Amino acid sequence: MKSNRLERLRRLRGNLPTLKSAQPAVVPVESLDLRTAEDLPYGVRLAASWAWRLLIIVAALGVVFWLLSKVSLLLISVMVAALLTSLLSPVVKILHAKLAVPHGLAVGITLIGFLALVTAGLSIAGQRLGAGFADLWTQALTGIQQIQDWLFNGPLQLTNDDLQTVLDDALTELRGNASNILSEAISWGSALGQILTGVLLTVFCLIFLLLDGRRVGLFLINLLPRRARPAMDGALTRGWSSLVRYVRVQMLVALIDALGIGFGAFFLGVPLALPLGVLVFIGSFIPVVGALVTGALAVLLALVSNGWVNALIMLAIVLLVQQAESHILQPLIMGKAVSLHPLAVVLSVAGGTMVANIAGALFAVPLLAVLNTVVKYLSRRSWEDDPFVAQNYGTNLAGARAPASDLEAAATPAAPPTSSPAPTPRLPEHPEDKNHEH
User: Rounded distance, CA 68 to CA 200, Å?
Assistant: First the structure.
């Protein structure tokens, strides 16, 4: 019996060095290779880590923008349809909810009424402008004769030979650039074709967004992971509300522009003040180009009808209205409606114009407003107390933090597993020990 126990102790003593050898060996400091140590300061390493990550993000965004530029016509059509949907959806809601009109019929009535209103406004303005220009043709001829008289008898003292030389030079330049002019004409023709295609796509998207806008939104939300759907649904719903407020305020700004320039033309005695106001109202929805074209038309009408003094006064009125829109109406009214600082509105319009010209100026503020609302909603965890989320995803998502903690757990890194102490090795039992115990 003693021999058995001694044998067991010998075997245990033989296993102890093996257990010790499993522990990591301590390397003395003198044996470390200092050449392989990191000798850069912590701030430099941190800045380098941020730098290459930011470069990757910027490169990814550049690829995304490049891909979107290839489908710019489709993208612009969808975004214009979204703006029009935010404008017309309250009308559809009133017809369907309060007047008990079927949803499809309400969409048809709203869309036909909107198109009829736009077409009627443009046709009335066109008819009035055509009739007014016919009456102003004699005044235009008188103005041309006055210009000719100034050229011949004024300080320039031009002669018929000088005018003929100018005309010959112009014809020579025209013949030399015939190919360029033809290519420009072809590009303008293709641009008109793209505009018509974009209009058809916009109308098509507008119909389905008014009919199934909520279903389209749910389709996009269902592409996300299940735990992220309630928060993103609430965020996009709030963003859509910001877009609706933006369109309403933009209509108010356009109305103020139309009234300012229209009444200015009326008090100055400029003809066609009413159609001019209609054109200014429509053109105010197109940044830069709309204001430029309608303002130039107002100044031209004042010049032809009432002379250059009246035209200068009209130009001052147009510039005053446009500056008030750019620096007062847009920043203050628009900023309050979409919860943006006036400086952010001005910079977003300027940056959008630099990046994507007219389309960038048109969509810069609404995109920034939607993005601002979505980011604030998500960062403040507003879906936990949102009645909309509670109604569509259950009350435990609002107020209670149980399901919302799934989102928090997804963003919080998991704690590393705690290492439990290694079990003490157990020696195998010997048959004679069992007999001894028994």
Answer: 20
- Residues 19/425, Cβ–Cβ less than 8 Å: yes
132 against 116, higher pLDDT: 116
Percent of the chain with pLDDT over 70: 65
Q: Are 348 and 362 in contact (CB under 8 A)?
A: no
Which residues, in sequence order, are CB contacts of 77 under 8 Å at separation 6+? 198, 201, 202, 205
- Cβ count within 10 A of residue 433: 13
Q: Residue 322's CB: how many other CB atoms inside 10 A? A: 18
Tokens of 182: 């033809």
Where do the H-state alpha helices sit in 154-288?
160-176, 178-221, 229-267, 273-283
Please tell me the distance from the alpha carbon of residue 241 to that of residue 221, in angstroms, as a whole number: 17
- Report the C-alpha gap between 46 and 68 in whole angstroms: 33
Rg (CA), the chain: 37
pTM over 0.85: no
Q: How many residues does the chain have?
A: 438
Model confidence pLDDT, tens digit, residues 411-420: 344 444 444 4
Measured in Å, how far apart are the chain's first and last C-alpha atoms? 14
Burial call 34-61: b when 16+ CB within 10 Å, e when fewer: eeeeeeeeeeeeeeeeeeeeeeeeeeee
> Per-residue pLDDT tens for 178-189?
666 666 656 666
